[in-house]
Design goal:
Length: about 350
């Protein structure tokens, strides 16, 4: 065993060994198969692959893995040599400031991995500690985030949380998607299709929650539905008679003690009610009841990049407090360098 391997293995005890991404599950592999991806396993990780359009080259993708075993990289290289893709992309969840980060980067270099020119899952993220009490979560928000959350509460914004296996889930999904699409249109970005959301719900119905913030109710006192699923099911029926307007919505996936904020959107109506702030606070409170230790708000801008495309999004997410972290992120193993260069050029054009 090399000195680098010994160092990596020795320092693994300082890195979490329990974190497993929902992207490394059979449910995700099944979900992606509906969009042309094929799943294989190498060791205990899923490797997704598909033929890329226009250039007819195979791409392999290993989403969000923790590097626990220094042999994983060698296994992936052997697999790539056998399958001969254009390239294999590996996403590493280990933090850049983790004790074994430098050892991992050295092993990547030794196995001819290079830093990817783009990321599929975000490297920079905002993470909220859910082991805190509900009071402390609110207290540890930034002043503006705490003020806006309390303002939404005071103004009577209602938050309804529905589990993916609830009978009304599809109805709620349509509401969330409408808010999501309106937000995408305002920002001139191409969002996911509704069929994508439907398929996601179908494959993760036991782990997805759909959250919607509404204008204050006029027929009953303000309330929040963020309770165990059995109560949600009973409460949903009583809310159907209340006329109110959806202001904000989100899709959150709960897996392995982590609640991940996947998609969201908001209306321009009644912006003064600050509904998105209360929405996220209630999602965090609900996630605590499901034994989550972390709320992952996902993508934020890298530090010291005020003009980054995620700058405004970052300011919003950081109002909830927590910690900004950076993962080691994406690395590519180029098996067909010529086609990889062509693909890189095409991706740069597409993303402009």
């Amino acid at each position: 065993m090399t000195e680098t391997s010994q160092t990596m293995n020795k320092e693994l005890e300082n890195e979490s060994k329990t974190q497993t991404s929902y992207l490394q599950t059979q449910s995700w592999a099944t979900f992606k198969s509906a969009f042309g991806w094929k799943a294989d396993t190498v060791g205990d990780v899923f490797v997704l692959s598909r033929q890329l359009p226009y250039i007819n080259q195979l791409m392999m993708y290993v989403p969000e893995v923790m590097i626990h075993d220094s042999s994983l990289l060698e296994k992936l290289v052997l697999f790539a040599k056998e399958k001969k893709p254009m390239f294999l992309r590996l996403e590493i969840l280990n933090n850049v400031d983790g004790g074994n980060a430098e050892a991992i980067k050295q092993k990547l270099k030794e196995n001819h991995f290079v830093k990817a020119f783009e990321e599929l899952q975000p490297e920079h993220r905002q993470i909220i500690d859910l082991t805190q009490s509900e009071t402390d979560i609110l207290h540890n928000m930034k002043e503006k985030g705490r003020y806006n959350t309390r303002l939404a509460q005071k103004k009577g914004v209602r938050v309804e949380i529905t589990t993916g296996d609830d009978a009304t889930a599809l109805e709620k999904l349509k509401i969330v998607y409408d808010l999501y699409q309106k937000t995408a249109d305002r920002k001139s970005i191409s969002g996911r299709s509704y069929s994508y959301f439907e398929k996601l719900l179908e494959n993760f119905k036991d782990e997805i929650i759909l959250s919607i913030a509404y204008t204050p109710a006029t027929t009953s006192p303000p309330s929040v539905i963020a309770v165990p699923p059995s109560v949600i099911a009973r409460s949903t029926a009583t809310k159907q008679s209340i006329t109110s307007t959806p202001l904000a919505g989100s899709i959150t996936l709960i897996h392995g003690g982590v609640a991940s904020y996947l998609y969201g959107g908001s209306s321009l109506e009644r912006k003064e009610l600050m509904a998105p702030y209360l929405l996220h606070y209630e999602v965090m409170k609900y996630a605590k009841t499901q034994n989550c230790q972390t709320y992952d708000l996902l993508a934020i801008a890298p530090p010291d990049q005020p003009n980054h495309k995620f700058a405004n999004l970052t300011r919003f997410k950081q109002q909830f407090g927590g910690k900004s972290i950076a993962r080691l992120g994406s690395y590519d193993l180029k098996m067909r360098p010529f086609w990889y260069t062509i693909f890189k050029l095409l991706e740069n054009i597409r993303r402009k």
